[in-house]
């Protein structure tokens, strides 16, 4: 399991807070990463105590963890077809989340960057299909303006063409390399990842459209207008920002 900055206690509070909102009978999208893993473990505990849910995994890693935790699983095709139950709620992490001011109504949940674990293509499928999408994060992920490099999953044959297109829009692409093998990271879908630095992203919606319409791009890690709630675990509790 990939880990990231931020304390594990804060991640656990965030994951468990979101897991507590899941109700009996629901179909639950199971996110990827070290924060979502806490939600999966808590859901596994609740299943052990009688909660009746089915999970839809977003990656090889989340499927494996959910199976270890005793959560019954559905494929996305089984959950999202015409006569299928649908996905009631998805719980997933983020690499960066824009949280707005909201002095009167509390903080507001804005766009996200995801894909630090190269799982963003399946995550976006599941998170977008869910009736409620809950993001779980620690305070190191919050920012007023997104500015982390955006993970872009590309067809292997499109790697150079997509890199050129990214440069043409002012971005700087870097092929993601594996830490424990000589060569690139290969996604669960058999593709490559370009981490594309754009500096401060003033218009995430426009960038999302540009990347989505670039030939060779399978999926990018900008998630716009998808998050319903962001559960931010702190050293002492949990803050919830809403859309
Ligand atoms: O591809 C991976 C996912 O988008 C993760 O949800 C994201 O990288 C956050 O992971 P973590 O909770 O480990 O920081």
UniProtKB/TrEMBL annotation:
Binding site for substrate: 32-35, 92-95, 114-117, 141
Catalytic reaction list: aldehydo-D-ribose 5-phosphate = D-ribulose 5-phosphate
Single annotated GO MF: ribose-5-phosphate isomerase activity
InterPro entries for the chain: NagB/RpiA_transferase-like (IPR037171), Ribose5P_isomerase_typA_subgr (IPR020672), Ribose5P_isomerase_type_A (IPR004788)
Transmembrane segments: none
GO annotation (BP), single: pentose-phosphate shunt, non-oxidative branch
Keywords: Isomerase
Organism domain of life: Archaea
Annotated region described as Disordered, given as residue ranges: 1-20
SUPFAM superfamilies in UniProt: D-ribose-5-phosphate isomerase (RpiA), lid domain, NagB/RpiA/CoA transferase-like
GO cellular component: cytosol
EC assignment: 5.3.1.6
Keyword Oxidoreductase recorded: no
Family: Belongs to the ribose 5-phosphate isomerase family.
Complexes and interactors: Homodimer.
Physiological role: Catalyzes the reversible conversion of ribose-5-phosphate to ribulose 5-phosphate.
HAMAP family for this protein: Rib_5P_isom_A
Protein name: Ribose-5-phosphate isomerase A
UniProt organism field: Halorubrum saccharovorum DSM 1137
Annotated gene: rpiA
């Amino acid at each position: 399991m990939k880990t990231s900055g931020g304390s594990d206690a804060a991640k656990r509070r965030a994951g468990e807070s979101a897991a507590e909102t899941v109700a009996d009978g629901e179909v639950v999208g199971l996110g990827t990463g070290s924060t979502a893993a806490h939600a999966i473990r808590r859901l596994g505990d609740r299943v052990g105590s009688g909660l009746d849910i089915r999970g839809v995994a977003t990656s090889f890693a989340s499927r494996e963890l959910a199976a270890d935790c005793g959560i019954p699983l559905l494929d996305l095709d089984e959950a999202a077809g015409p006569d299928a139950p649908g996905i009631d709620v998805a719980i997933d992490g983020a690499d960066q989340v824009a949280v707005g001011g909201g002095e009167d109504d509390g903080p507001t949940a804005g766009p996200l960057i995801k894909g630090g674990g190269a799982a963003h293509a399946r995550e976006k499928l599941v998170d977008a299909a869910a009736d409620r999408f809950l993001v779980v994060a620690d305070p190191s992920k919050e920012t007023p303006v997104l500015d982390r490099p955006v993970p872009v999953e590309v067809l292997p044959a499109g790697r150079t063409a997509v890199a050129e297109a990214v440069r043409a829009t002012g971005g700087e692409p870097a092929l993601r390399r594996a830490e424990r093998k000589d060569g690139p990271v290969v996604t669960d879908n058999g593709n490559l990842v370009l981490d594309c630095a754009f500096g401060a992203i003033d218009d995430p919606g426009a960038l999302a459209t540009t990347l989505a319409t670039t030939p060779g791009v399978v999926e990018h890690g900008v998630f716009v207008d998808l998050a319903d709630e962001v559960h931010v675990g702190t050293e002492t509790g949990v803050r919830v920002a809403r859309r």
